[in-house]
Amino acid sequence: MNKMTVRDADLKGKRVLVRVDFNVPVDNGTVTDDTRVRAAVPTLKYILDQKPRSVVLMSHLGRPKGGPEPKYSLAPVAPVLEKLLGQKVYFAEDCVGPTAEQAAASLPEGGVLLLENTRFYKGEEKNDLDLAQQMVKLGDIYVNDAFGSAHRAHSSTEGVARYLPAVSGLLMEKEIDYLATALESPKRPFVAILGGAKVSDKIAVIEALLGKVDKLLIGGGMANTFLKAKGYAMGKSLVEAEAIETARDLLQKGGDKLVLPVDAVIGDDFKNDANQQTISLEAGVPEGWSMYDIGPKTVDLFAQTLKDARTVVWNGPMGVFEMSNFAKGTNAVAKLLADITSKGAVTIIGGGDSAAAVEQSGLAGQITHISTGGGASLEMLEGKALPGVVALKDK
Q: In the annotation, is 374 catalytic?
């Protein structure tokens, strides 16, 4: 990465303002998945080892409607981080203004302060520079470690970098390095796996990847539109009618690089205990049934393609993995990736649902790199520059 990192900065005695990604699930005031909080710990420990004056943390959580909403408060994250860091984490009930400034000023030497949700201010998502200028009052140097928000030009990700020396955290550096290396100089064969619900969300990604990969495997709901474009009956499966023509073009462009499912697990209702059966896709999905997962023959076909792969990037589940009866395909792909990782392949999971699925399958520790940012990793796969990264100081 050609951007400066915390390792290039003198942090001793400085007030360090850090943008983290603590956009975590909270249920009744309890953090139910601390993956993103844990991911920030190496950067925070590194900063604390440099003996800063203070460490002030900013993050968003959820999508509040332009004002404070108690259910989106970051307060429940402070005790989780405190436990992980092994030191007191103070909490400020605002992210700018007198409350935040007073809390930051009264921190003990080397103290850590977590600010309230940046999205409690409407200006955050508009990259309001007045808001950014209020944020910069809390630091002497800015560290962006929020890869999950790097694709957004917001006050706390891009705005503040205009007013303070801005460097990357260790997580941000790791994320960029893995994805950039995979895309620019992958060990081959290079295989991408794309899933998730919609083709329309990933058209640009598919087009960008077709020029780079040796094979592109398609699963999940987005496969339905491709299969429909091939003329297969899809019953009442989710098909994007307006994307069928595009899918047809991509099939033509991709040729034998594009690998589609050959069988499917279908259900007669969108619930875990629906009646289900496994069918050949050539025979078509019967009326009243929907495709909810890839079938065992597709898993075998994918396994054949993946067995010699040296670099694999995966974004998007293979089916409705939230329902255990339709999670087998996604879990099988996670297992295939864990197997080839053990043989030296580089495997990268591009955040979002696929990261959740791998965590759920218990195989997260056997994958080379699991990204913390679904949207940001997709934009990188598409070849877009990320505003939160562009704003950092060049080496």
A: no
Catalytic residue among 45, 137, 162, 198: 198
> Which of 62, 110, 284, 375 is the catalytic position?
375
For 148-178, the pLDDT digits (tens) are 999 999 999 999 999 999 999 999 999 999 8
pTM for the complete prediction? 0.88
Helix (H) or strand (E) holding 339: helix 328-342
Residue range 122-139: mean pLDDT, rounded: 97
Residue 45: active-site member:
no
Question: Do residue 210 and residue 330 come from a single domain?
Answer: yes
Residue 269 belongs to domain with CATH number:
3.40.50.1260
Query: How would you list the strands of the sheet with 141-144, edge to edge?
Result: 89-91, 111-114, 54-58, 15-19, 141-144, 166-168
- Identify the domain containing residue 64 by its residue range: 6-171
Q: Is 126 a catalytic residue?
A: no
- Beta-carbon contacts of 105 under 8 Å, excluding residues fewer than 6 positions away, are none
Catalytic site residue from 14, 36, 152, 202: 36
Q: What pLDDT does residue 198 have?
A: 83
Determine whether 375 is an active site residue: yes
- Per-residue pLDDT reduced to its tens digit, 230-266: 999 999 999 999 999 999 999 999 999 999 999 999 9
Number of compact structural domains in the chain: 2
